[in-house]
Amino acid sequence: MSAANLSVFSRGETLDQHYSSLQVKVAAGPTAILGLWQIAAPFVLGYSTLFRPLVNDVIVGTLVVVLAATCYFDLVEVSWLGWVTAVLGIWLVLAPFVLGYWMIEPATENDVVIGTLIAVLGAWSALAVSSHHSAGRRSDQS
Questions:
Q1: Residue 7 pairs with which residues in a beta bridge?
Q2: Which residue ranges make up each domain of the chain?
Q3: How far apart (Å, rounded) are the C-alpha atoms in residues 60 and 56?
Q4: Rounded-to-integer distance, Cα 113 and Cα 38, Å
């Protein structure tokens, strides 16, 4: 029996499962902050009078905050939440070009940078949940 299979936590989770859960929380905190920033960005960066980037940033930012909070507080433990967050990040990178506001530098630069960070954190969280469930299935089979 390896140390990773020992039940060392009160919920009966293994060490691998604990670290996966911790990885989700480590990803969710900054993701939520990035989502809050995305909501505030149009007002802080001065493009709140422009409909498309404003609405896009507020809607995507709100969705990111809700998904990150759901992951952080263990309300649901499924990898698709992280993947949806990653897709929202990719959408932010593409949105200035798809929605036609690429010429508005503050909005475009913000969406590309923040979108990239959200995509990476969302994927990292999704992979942690996937490995958490894989580890759980491996320990059940032992």
A1: 14
A2: 15-141
A3: 6
A4: 11
